[in-house]
Amino acid sequence: MTDDGQSRDLAFDAIDPRYQAFIGDYLRRYDLDAARFCRPLPADDEMFFKAILPNYENDLSIAAFKFVESTLRHYEAYRQVVEGALGGFANLGTVLDFASGWGRLTRVLEQKLDRRQIFVGDIYHDAVAWQEKTFGVTGVSSAPDPDDFEHACGHDLVFVGSMFSHLPDGLFQRWLAKLHGFLGHRGVLAFSVHDQAILPAGHAMDPSGLTYLRFSESGSLDLEIYGMSYVTEAYVVAAIQAVSPGASWRRFPKGLYENQDLYVVGAPGVDLSGLKVASPPMGGFETATLLPTGETEYVGWALERTPGCAIDLVGVHVDDRPVVSILPDRERPDVLAAFPGAPNAPVGWRFRLQAPAGAMVRLHLQSSSGLTGYAYAQATGPAALTYSGWSRRALRV
Ligand SMILES: C[S@@+](CC[C@H](N)C(=O)[O-])C[C@H]1O[C@@H](n2cnc3c(N)ncnc32)[C@H](O)[C@@H]1O
Prior knowledge:
By secondary structure, this protein is an alpha+beta fold. Helix 5 links the parallel strand 1 and strand 2 (118-122). The strands form four sheets. A seven-stranded mixed β-sheet has the order 3-2-1-4-5-9-8, sandwiched between helices.
């Protein structure tokens, strides 16, 4: 919101240039064209303006970085499903990103696929129209009730990020049936939910296995169809088996976003038993302290959220040059409060270096899963760091 009370699109080139540099570097790690990815964020995008931005103290630069980071984490899950269940991007038919919002994921997909392969759907028809106009993809306009939505197409992948995590009982099963019906013969449906492990304190799980809380980030969706829901695995599995008895399915705890579980369900006859989806490590800087020696000491945290995996190395790069590798040197039980039900202990790290003013420091959080998480800081001068919503910045530069 601007001083005159008007909402405006956010242009990436209006944010702090240091965060623009972090974003450009991060996108290059994924072979993405930054200029193409960084089209302005439409003022009506609730995911950015109502969810991410307020979570980062309305700091547009940090929020824009977090938008990019969350998109790339989202894409990491997507990529693993495509490679593990569908033979890779080169062998992919058409895909539907349902509940796409304003197309966070489309910014990546349109660089990895032919636009004719990409279908996007949302109840916000202006968001769908904007994506059609901006990316040249095919839009489908959804409805509050699945019975009022028709779409005739057999897709290889129907991906639904963060919609089932907001559905009440009944609609949950009906949307699952509807979307599973959009799969082609080798197709897979991937959708995310909030597990009961992250049910907010003070609430109890409903005996049905789905607890529905009547609030959300949406400024306009009716609370009868969109709130906050928390589910047990038994609830989700019963819904899957009712839709497609005997279907192969997998659950990947914390597989999507920072806190959602990813479920993947095959079309009849598709075997998903070998599918693996890991979550890239998360982490961030907490302090950057200029020492009398002229060095700067950086301190932060990291968390591997994939069960059975661990962060085995933290590589430090300055302006793209590897300068030092360290190991996490302590556990950080205080961080756990922000990640209820995390399968691994959060860890802490610290290192010192003397780097040219303005240099970019990039951390590689390397996991035994084979995935890498990244965090950024500017070497000296007025501090710029990437951090996490709960770990407020404490800069001492
Ligand atoms: C939390 S947002 C996630 C958006 C997007 N998947 C992402 O990760 O950025 C949830 C989205 O679900 C959409 N949605 C809610 N009910 C829907 C329905 N009945 N049909 C299609 N989309 C719906 C909302 O409009 C919103 O864009």
